[in-house]
Fold this sequence. Notes:
alpha+beta; three-stranded antiparallel beta sheet; about 60 residues; single chain; 1 helix; binds zinc ion; 3 strands; elongated
Amino acid sequence: MLLLLPLLALAVLLYLWLSRRGSTLTRQCLWRQNRARGLWRCAACGAETPDAGRPPRHCLRKS
Ligand SMILES: [Zn+2]
């Protein structure tokens, strides 16, 4: 059990680093929640995605 705790902390840090690194959001990307329609809409590129409780981490703009 004493060995597991540092490993768990390391895993959490690794996860945070990876999730931050994996984001492709740019400064132009502005996700706005549209509760009425139950979706998120990007004010910058107009992309829409179903509301999953949190704003998307990626811009869905087609490059
Ligand atoms: Zn966008």
